From TrEMBL:
It comes from Phaseolus coccineus. GO terms for molecular function: lipase activity. Residues 9-22 have a biased composition (Low complexity). GO terms for cellular component: extracellular region. The lineage of its organism: Eukaryota, Viridiplantae, Streptophyta, Embryophyta, Tracheophyta. Residues 1-22 are annotated as: Disordered. One of its GO terms (biological process) is lipid metabolic process. Keywords: Signal. It comes from the Eukaryota. PROSITE patterns: LIPASE_GDSL_SER. Belongs to the 'GDSL' lipolytic enzyme family. Residues 1-46 form the signal peptide. InterPro entries: GDSL (IPR001087), GDSL_lipolytic_enzyme (IPR050592), Lipase_GDSL_AS (IPR008265), SGNH_hydro_sf (IPR036514), SGNH_plant_lipase-like (IPR035669). Coiled coil: none annotated. This is GDSL esterase/lipase EXL3.
Amino acid sequence: MAHLTKLLSSSSSSSSSSSSSSPHFLPSYMLRFILLLLFVSSNTEALLKLPPNVSVPAVFVFGDSVVDTGNNNNRTTSFARSNFPPYGRDFEGGIPTGRFSNGKVPSDLIVEELGIKELLPPYLKPNLQPSDLVSGVCFASGGSGYDPLTSVLEGSIGVSGQLDLFKEYIGKLKGVVGEERAKFILANSLFIVVAGSSDISNTYRTRSLLYDLPSYSDLLLNSASNFLMELNELGARRIAVFSAPPIGCLPFQRTVGGGIEKKCAPRPNNLAQLFNTKLSNLIHSLNRNFPNSRNVFINIYDPLLDIILNYQKYGYKVGDTGCCGTGRIEVAILCNSLDSTCPNVHDYVFWDSFHPTESVYKRLIAPILQKYLYQFK
């Protein structure tokens, strides 16, 4: 397969100047055909049964650190990086990849459940292959959010910047498979949007001098609306928009806003719920404006809150602190090789003070896909 990938790469860059009779280069139509065969043959076995008449050729992910698979690795000015131990402790080979987890993140689990591939590569991966483009990539950036100020504070790629990368991607995809096939892939693929956590958890502390909860939720909603409208206009037709999670119940928020007993901080949860209500209404409006699209609101708030509050029911022993360090404040560069980690990560709901463990993600993703996929028919 490595030899074929190399051949594809060299042929793609030279096909415009070579003739169909040349023994050294493949004609463009043959290149595309072989590439599609390579893509189909490399699929993993689907774990999830798709609804009738539904196929998903690729997955594209936008958002923040929950779904970032490594786009921030080379952004040395960003605080939101995780390409160092102990991140990736339970990943393949124990290698830190820029995923904010002990193992896989939702981006990976979604493509695995759909039988597309095992891992979703970051779009900014240095050695990204043509076959990666065909089956989907991740544009998410840790520390990003709907609020433009969030990515500035975190040194990350904002959602508008992620759209710019997606536009660049579309041009590359057309060069690989042709314009018609590219349109088909975009129209039938699943687009995942996971944002809002960094806005509510971090940026609102700065914005609160000028915005109360309703007005800040409107700011987030306006940005989300612009982002989703442009995504629809660029050809996306199946868009899953995840709600904000129960931010106030993350270990970090319990530490800074949960009082002596480290209870769930009420204000971040109130803001998340307010934003989620407005976001859900926005999704309904988008479907009226784009009748050929299926924009679907995914409620992650309630199922994650249930795991956090009733952790013992799910087999966990610790639900209020993370596995890394003290579990109270460590996240990103504060969770590093100088910190000890818990002996058994499967006892914990959270890996660090902000992100759930791979085990929790696995509990959430399969049921969510099973519940909502029928809405993309």
